[in-house]
Amino acid sequence: MDREKDSKLNETVKFEATKDNPVEPREILLSVFKSLEEKGYNPINQIIGYILSGDPTYITSHNNARNLIRKIERDELLEEILRAYLETNRD
Fold it and tell me: What family is it from (predicted)?
């Protein structure tokens, strides 16, 4: 049994984000970013705070941004950010 456990620890787990959500993470991020800017917050810091903690109070309720960002999972937000970054910075 211990060998079985050890062999599983050496395997790479494949992560696939679910695509069940009809709301586009990109559109939500852009909308939340704009709402945070309008209220005078640093959008990058606030969004990072939300992603790391899961605490929706990092996001303003202005323009319904707080409810909007909670429609998608934090891992989906990270996926969108990483995808956009890599597409922009790929050689």
Answer: Belongs to the UPF0297 family.
Q: What token pair was written down for 14?
A: 């494949």
**Residue 15: inside a domain, yes or no?**
no
- Are 71 and 20 in contact by the 8 Å Cβ rule? The answer is no
Give the pLDDT confidence score for residue 76 in this predicted structure. Answer: 94
Secondary structure, 3-state, 36-86: HHHCCCCHHHHHHHHHHHCCHHHCCCHHHHHHHHCCCCHHHHHHHHHHHHH
Our count of domains for the chain comes to 1
Question: What was the pLDDT predicted at 3?
Answer: 67
Low-confidence ranges of the chain (pLDDT < 70): 1-7, 17-22
In a domain, 12, yes or no: no
